[in-house]
Structure formats: structure tokens, C-alpha cells
Design goal:
Blueprint (H helix, E strand, L loop, with lengths): L2 E5 L10 H10 L4 E4 L8 H6 L6 E12 L2 E8 L6 H12 L1 H14 L6 H8 L6 H10 L6 H4 L20 H10 L3 E4 L13 H9 L4 E5 L5 H14 L2 E4 L19 H10 L6 E2 L7
Parallel strand pairs: 1-2, 2-3, 5-6, 6-7
Antiparallel strand pairs: 3-4, 3-8, 4-5
Helix pairs in contact: 5-6
């Protein structure tokens, strides 16, 4: 089985629609794909409707968190999307995205970059607006060559010249909320130092004690030594280890299935979940 547990669609900051994403996942030879848009489940219904026979969809979301002054993301899988407390928290995070984007645009304007809200809103379309949309605007304007080049201290990285914070939930609260909604929590790209400061291992140990299920190890932003360190940490704490592409369509160079999760780990994730179940494909066409 080939299993990719971290992808994004136009419901947040990817460039594939949810339907395109599952069709592309089938074409890439995946057996299981998780749709984990930022702080939203809005793309799930479209993905399910387009799901080809032979491909299974894991529903989820990537939730915005902050701990010890560091931004981090939590992958939440197979939770009940209508559970009131978790739904309210996701809406609170999403509602803060527009003023945050406008704040970044204002800072860029102060730095002499002629980006506009209209440009960023066009790029975001129906998705939840975020930094990648602002980064894409910088690419369009020729300020940086790629989206990744916008995520530096000079521009949009945490603490960067044009960075603006947003509402981010304490990860210990997220773990509790997701668990109460029957879901499973995996810390996304915990060693991605190129994105900015990372969460200390001591904090990961505390999250493990609080019910964290796993950490994402095989990821494009982790080099070999980082993966080895994270695997050792997972072994010490009993955390599950996942691998995934963090696919964003054409917004990133990584392809679907470039990094994958072991089938035994996937089976354990599905065993622990009670809020929702993986959806086997039947409605779409495998290409």
C-alpha cells in the first residue's frame, strides 16, 4: 500500500481542487490519501464525490497552533467535523486569516512592495487565505523567484519583516479537542527548522504525555539527521511515525506520494479513531 497522509487543496492553500487532488492521487498510484486543509474540512464532500474505486480518503485538517512562542501545525485525522467545541475553534482560527493577510499586505506596502488585497484574494479564490497566497503574490510581482523564497526573515517567515501573527490554539487544547471529537493527532513537520523556530523536544515529550499520537518524520523539510533524531524520539515516547508529501499542487515542488506512511502505522491510526472512518472510493474514475 502507498499511503500519503498530508495534502492540501484549493479549500485552503493548494492549487488542485479537492476533486482534482483525489484524481491526481489515483494517477500517482496511491492507495490512501488524507485531505488535510488548513483549519477547514470544506473540501471533504467534493473529494468523496470524486473518489475513484481503489483509492481510500482519510478526512482530516491541519490545525494552527502556538506553544512556547513557536508556531506549529497539528494534523488531525478522522475526527467528527461537527463536534461543536472543535468546530468553534476552527472557525475562530479561520476568521482571523483575512485580517492577518491584510496586515501582511500593509507591511509589504511599507517595504515598497505593491501587493494588494485584490491580488491576494484572487490567488486565494475560495480557499482559506494564508501566507502561501501572499507568497504567490510576491512571486507574481517578481519579488522572489519561488513561494519557498518568500518564507524567509526578509519576508514572511515567523518573525520576518512582513510577518503578522494570527490566532493559534495551544496544542494541548487541540489534542484534547481532537480526542474529544474522536480523532487522532500527529505533529506536522516538527523538525522543519528552515521555516523558523521549532518546538523543543521537551515540549513534544509533554504533548506525548497529554495524548499526542504521532509525529510526521518523513517530510521534505527534514534532512537525514533530523529524521533519525525524530525516529529516536518517537521510539522513546511510543509515538507513531508518519510520512507524507505535504502536497500543495503547483505551489510546491513535492509530488503526491513522494513520502509515505507505513501501512501498519496507518492501520493503528484508523484503529484509534472513532469520530469518522476512512472512505473507500466508488464515485470517481481511476485514471
Amino acid at each position: 500500500m502507498r499511503i500519503d497522509l498530508h495534502t492540501h487543496s484549493t479549500a485552503s492553500d493548494g492549487t488542485d481542487t479537492p476533486a482534482e487532488l483525489v484524481r491526481n492521487a489515483a494517477a500517482a498510484g496511491l492507495d490512501v490519501v488524507a485531505l488535510t486543509d488548513h483549519d477547514t474540512t470544506r473540501g471533504h464532500a467534493e473529494a468523496v464525490a470524486a473518489l475513484a474505486e481503489g483509492l481510500t480518503l482519510v478526512t482530516g485538517a491541519e490545525l494552527s497552533c502556538r506553544v512556547d512562542g513557536v508556531s506549529m501545525h497539528m494534523l488531525a485525522y478522522l475526527f467528527d467535523p461537527e463536534e461543536p467545541a472543535l468546530l468553534a475553534e476552527r472557525e475562530l482560527v479561520r476568521d482571523d486569516r483575512v485580517p492577518r493577510a491584510r496586515g501582511m499586505i500593509a507591511r509589504l506596502n511599507e517595504l515598497g512592495v505593491p501587493v494588494t488585497w485584490e491580488q491576494v484574494a484572487r490567488i486565494a479564490g475560495d480557499g482559506s487565505v494564508g501566507r502561501p497566497h501572499v507568497a504567490t503574490a510576491l512571486v507574481e510581482l517578481g519579488v522572489v523567484p519561488t513561494v519557498s523564497d518568500a518564507f524567509t526573515g526578509q519576508w514572511l517567515a515567523d518573525g520576518g519583516r512582513a510577518y503578522v501573527g494570527k490566532h493559534e490554539t495551544d496544542p494541548f487544547d487541540v489534542i484534547r479537542l481532537v480526542k474529544d471529537a474522536g480523532g487522532v493527532c500527529v505533529f506536522a513537520h516538527p523538525g522543519a527548522a528552515k521555516r523558523g523556530s521549532t518546538v523543543p523536544e521537551e515540549t513534544i515529550l509533554r504533548m506525548a504525555a497529554a495524548g499526542l499520537d504521532g509525529i510526521e518524520v518523513d517530510h521534505m523539510d527534514h534532512d537525514g539527521p533530523t529524521r533519525e533524531r525524530l525516529r529516536a524520539l518517537a521510539k522513546e515516547t511510543g509515538l507513531l511515525t508518519t510520512g507524507s508529501s505535504d502536497y500543495h499542487g503547483s505551489r510546491k515542488t513535492v509530488g503526491l506520494g513522494e513520502y509515505t506512511t507505513d501501512p501498519d502505522i496507518y492501520a493503528e491510526i484508523t484503529r484509534r479513531a472513532t469520530g469518522a472512518f476512512p472512505v473507500p472510493g466508488a464515485g470517481g474514475t481511476r485514471v
